[in-house]
Amino acid sequence: MTSDLLTDLRAVAREHADGLRSTALELDRDPSRAVTLLDRGLPWRQLIGLPAAYNPDPLRVRGRPVYLDSCAQQVVVLEELARADAGAVLALPGPSMSGFVVTELADGDQLDRYWRTVATGATWTFFGMTEPAHGSDPGSMGTTLRPTGEADGLLLTGVKRFVGNGARARIGVVFARRHAGPLGVVAVLVDTDRPGFTAVPLPTLGLRGLQLSELRMTEVPIAGADLLGRHRSATRQGMWAATRTFNRYRPVVSGLALGVAQAGYDLVVAARHRFRSDERHLLADWARRLTGTRALVLAAAHAADRDPGDGTLASAAKIRATRLAEEITTSAVRLLGPGARWEHPLLDKLVRDARAFEFMEGTGNIQRLNLAQGYLQGRLGDARVA
Ligand SMILES: Cc1cc2nc3c(=O)[nH]c(=O)nc-3n(C[C@H](O)[C@H](O)[C@H](O)COP(=O)(O)OP(=O)(O)OC[C@H]3O[C@@H](n4cnc5c(N)ncnc54)[C@H](O)[C@@H]3O)c2cc1C
Fold this sequence. Notes:
The protein is an alpha+beta fold. About 50% of the residues lie in helices and about 15% in strands. About 50% of the residues are buried. InterPro entries: Acyl-CoA_Oxase/DH_mid-dom, Acyl-CoA_Oxase/DH_mid-dom_sf, AcylCo_DH-like_C, AcylCo_DH/oxidase_C, AcylCoA_DH/oxidase_NM_dom_sf.
């Protein structure tokens, strides 16, 4: 897609974002409202990235159908929507992260099963990696997939925590250990109505619309047909796909964080009319950094579209966007004076939402390690990351 079309796509997304702004506090108070908010005019089905074969009525830009099937298109649209409410963007039904894993690993039947389910009604999905005792470190993953002793039957047992949309999902991807060692982690497609599967929402402060959940799986029956990537070599299965998914989703998370940063800036400029000269300098600095970060996020998205195996720029974008969101929202509280979080409930929400991005998709320290490794291996090419 050319940059002109991306500019037009951004304008279309901006028009749709207004609807989300009016429901932001309602969803923040009660994340279970995500279902009812879908009836408030947002053409969400056109914005969640359904593939052409399952999407008879796509978004149109300059008369051309747009399926939001590239990272570049997603970051442009989702940043604009997040400028209204990042929690609502993450609360939308659709493929989200699990769609990337399925696209990487699934065979024809699995692809059809997954997309048919996701395209029917309002269907949420989940991506289950993080565990209460082991975090998102695959090396010590405790969730297991053990043979039942009958044909290709398997049993899935374990707990996943901090899983977005888990409690309202109908289908999702769970990462589990089938054998010891780095190649022993596999991805399985799980329907949430299977016996032994339960999911409960967790109490949270930031991005509450996402309804982070805990998944508990006790001997959930898994068939060979649920194993993603079983037709591939052991080096092209679970963790290979997870890494590529992180590399593709980090620019999206960066775009969401950037939307929150921009919303904080917009709120300050709208709420105060006079600024001291040092404050004017601060606002000018923010405006420059918002523009620079937007360029970096888009560059990271293009890089992920070219090669999802390389997450160097994605990590750089996530560091930048997350830091900017935290800095602008917390400084906005100071600029708007005592009581700012009471007087501006939307700002209170932005401060809480901004903090959640630090952990989502790996903390800043992990991104710095990725970035350093990429730099040492010469993967930054011509990109300039100051
Ligand atoms: C809003 C939100 C949505 C989420 N959605 C999902 C989801 O859908 N599915 C899912 O599975 N998980 C999800 N998570 C969980 C998230 O992916 C993990 O919490 C995140 O990756 C951090 O991993 P961890 O908990 O293992 O922490 P760790 O990576 O262990 O980090 C703990 C602390 O140690 C530091 N640290 C770790 N390693 C190093 C190192 N080598 N050097 C220096 N410091 C280090 C970190 O910076 C951090 O301060 C979500 C989390 C949030 C907040």
